[in-house]
Amino acid sequence: MAADIVAWLRHPVDMSEPMRIERYANFGTGEAWVSRVMLGLLNVLDVTTVPNRDEVKEGLGVVFQALAEAFNDLRSLRELMSRSDSPATELQAAYSSFYVHLWRAYKDRFQKSVPPALGYDVGFLWANDKTFEAGAATFLAAHPAVGTGLVEMLGNDRREWQNDLATFRNEHLEHQQPVDPALLATFYRLDSAETAFENVWQAIEDITAQLLSAHFPPGIELVEIPENERDPIVPRRFGFRVPGLGAMSE
């Protein structure tokens, strides 16, 4: 059985009153995004030489909370879609809430927290194509240690799913502008919502891991743990290896 989340919310109150503690969530590390985005990336961070680790950890916490809001919306969608009598207006509102929270986690919370804490500006990822190309070139010139693999991945994400998600959220949900009906129809499906959630949290994981790996001490490499070798309780994706030794550690 997956481990429960052990994070709790503490609400500061007057010192004469008892402190109130509430349970943070009713999902745990059995959810891949929980074990990989929060716990797995913290594990990677601990191997780096990043000086301001507390700031990075705080940023990851902000992203985790935002993803949790989207995940709770997704669970509500699953429940609504499992019933044959769910009202259309309730379904539409649930989809809107999910995509708004998901885009906020990616475009707003992540962009403004984790990369800046690590000394990077990746705002070009959410810009138009011309600005993206110019920003990618500037990023590579400023951070050659990160490598071209990250920028190539960002370009692929934009083409494969991010641009469509941005169009749906910004033009349809936010500004109520005309959008291709065929594109709209794809987003109002549970399988599309599930895929969108996976695309976003995995992009956050990939970007953060690559930025963190540029801060590894000499001689340490980031490696991906084969799925059949991951801990079923906390299935982290990444481990570490020292070339020449052959051993891998989580």
- Order of secondary-structure elements: EEHHHHHHHEEE
Question: Structural class of the helices, strands and pairings?
Answer: mainly alpha
Distance, first to last CA: 20 Å
- Count the domains: 1
Rg (CA only)? 20 Å
**Number of E strands:** 5
How much strand content do the residues show?
5-15%
Largest sheet: 3 strands, antiparallel
- What fraction, in percent, of the residue positions are helical? 55-70%
- Overall mean pLDDT score? 88
Give the number of helices.
Answer: 7
Give the overall silhouette.
globular
Low-pLDDT regions = 1-13
What is the strand arrangement across the widest sheet?
3-4-5
How would you describe what is shown here?
The chain is mainly α. It has one domain (33-219). The chain contains seven helices and five strands; from the N terminus they run ββαααααααβββ. It has helices at residues 32-45, 53-81, 88-117, 129-142, 148-174, 181-187, 190-213; strands at residues 8-11, 20-23, 221-224, 238-241, 248-249. The strands form two sheets. The protein has a three-stranded antiparallel sheet with strand order 3-4-5, with helices on one face. β1 (8-11) and β2 form a beta hairpin. α1 packs antiparallel against α2 (53-81), α1 runs parallel beside α7 and α2 runs antiparallel to α7. The protein starts with 7 loop residues before the first strand and ends with a strand. Residues 1-13 have low confidence and may be disordered.
Structure summary:
By secondary structure, the chain is mainly α. It contains seven helices and five strands, in the order ββαααααααβββ. The chain has helices at residues 32-45, 53-81, 88-117, 129-142, 148-174, 181-187, 190-213, and strands spanning 8-11, 20-23, 221-224, 238-241, 248-249.
